[in-house]
Amino acid sequence: MIALIIDLVLFAFLILTAIAVARLRNLFAVAMLAGMFSLLAAGLFMTLDAVDVAFTEAAVGAGISTVLTLGALALTTSQEKKSVHSTRLPLLLCAVTGAALLYGTLDIPAFGSAQAPVHTHVGADYLARTGTDIGVPNFVTAILASYRGYDTLGETTVIFTAAIAVLLLLGRGLRGRGTGDQ
């Protein structure tokens, strides 16, 4: 019961933070609230026993993304410019996408169900073989590092490529700034 209350409180804070991000025009406040959103999401993942996902969300979402956003913000203004277009079409698109995502979750097995496909096929095989195949006592680490090693390598490559691209873009802005200020 206490876990359900914690989950509901975290969800409520996530919703309030998302609304605040959408309503604010101060980009510094938006960057800070986006980092806070990621930290709340990491807390929610912790309550759902997804420690590896929580760690990644905290490191990438609340950490690296916030630092890169603040770095980009240092090269621009602190206030969002008023949009000249109507916000009705993007709002409708978000509502339709959200409805489609909710519809897609209707056939998902119940949370923790032993009859879920992940528990009846691959998961049971991983649990049966991990101790002898790998010899690492932590099953999550063993599965991520060996059975899903290519996935982890791919995710790391994507994050590294994105960081290099952002650093190159930020470097281009700094080079253009330094020549005319003397």
Could you give the topology of this structure?
Layout: H1 2-23, H2 27-47, H3 51-73, H4 88-104, H5 117-120, H6 122-133, H7 139-147, H8 149-178
Supply the key terms:
8 helices, mainly alpha, 182 residues, single chain
Please explain how this structure is put together.
The protein has 182 residues and is mainly α. It contains eight helices and no strands. α1 runs antiparallel to α2 (27-47).
Largest sheet: none
Low-confidence segments, ≥5 residues, pLDDT <50?
none
Structural class by sheet pairing and helices: mainly alpha
Order of helices and strands: HHHHHHHH
Brief sketch in words of this structure:
This protein has 182 residues and is an all-alpha fold. It has helices at 2-23, 27-47, 51-73, 88-104, 117-120, 122-133, 139-147, 149-178.
